[in-house]
Design a protein that fits this description.
Layout: H1 6-19, H2 31-70, H3 75-84, H4 91-100, H5 102-114
Helix pairs in contact: 1-2, 2-4, 3-5, 4-5
Length: 115
């Protein structure tokens, strides 16, 4: 005797259509098009969670470099000097200092120059 998939299939279709709510045209109305759209959007979300990490690191480095140059050094020299001076600040915090508290960033640069 075969098993029919009526209730399960309806649940699955409803789940997919709910996930594609807000998509344009048939991508939110027809199951087959919606399923394609859902799979693609989930893949984009997975990929871009990783891309976001890269993009933010690039942003932090650009901000640190701009602030470092305003304080008479470069990004690479600053990071090297920080390692030698045992100043353990990650790039996210360093970029935040550069933007929100320039005087604190200048103090970090001065601490690297003195050692």
């Amino acid at each position: 005797m075969r098993v029919k998939t009526g209730p399960y299939r309806r649940q699955h279709h409803k789940k997919v259509l709910k996930m594609t709510k807000g998509q344009f045209g048939t991508r939110s109305r027809l199951f087959r098009r919606a399923n394609e759209a859902m799979l693609k959007s989930l893949w984009y979300a997975y990929r871009d969670r990783r891309t976001r990490k890269r993009d933010l690191r690039r942003l932090w480095i650009a901000r640190i470099n701009a602030a470092a140059r305003a304080n008479g050094t470069t990004y690479s020299r600053l990071i090297d000097a920080m390692k030698k001076a045992n100043i353990a600040l990650n790039r996210k915090m360093l970029a935040d200092l550069a933007v929100r508290q320039p005087e604190a960033f200048a103090a970090v640069v001065a601490a690297t120059k003195s050692s």
